[in-house]
Amino acid sequence: MIFKAVRDGRPYPDHGFSTKDWALIPPRQVRLDTMTTTKRELALDALLADDSTFYGDLFPHAVQWHGELYLEDGLHRALRAALQQRNVIHVRVLDLDALMPPTPVG
Fold it and tell me: At the top level of its lineage, which domain of life is listed (predicted)?
């Protein structure tokens, strides 16, 4: 299996990060099989395009929420890496667990 799981949608709250905000997060290496995708469908033309990152970030974006990593943006880049027999990629990870700690009950 390439990814830990496949979802349709984001289970975490909207973080409101812009492209500039994401650019401030340094990329780190992440194993593909530790991430859950937030998109079920794939556009084959985007997967095969040579210039798919021409207008965007070179690094996929993931969100850590409740100890899980969710691939928010960059599914096609991650799949291309898997097709090239790579199981680790560089990803910008937004740690919502650190930004939004759970509130104590009681």
Answer: Bacteria
The DSSP output letter for 32 is G
Model confidence pLDDT, tens digit, residues 12-65: 999 999 989 999 999 999 999 999 999 887 766 665 666 555 456 789 999 999
* Nearest to 37, CA basis, from 59, 4, 60: 4
Query: Domain of 81: which CATH number?
Result: 3.90.1530
Q: What is the model's pTM?
A: 0.84
**Residue whose token pair is 């090239």:** 84
Total domain count for the chain?
A: 1
Using a 10 angstrom Cβ sphere, with 0-12 exposed, 13-18 middle and 19 or more buried, the burial of residue 29 is exposed
In the numeric block, which tokens belong to residue 84? 């090239």
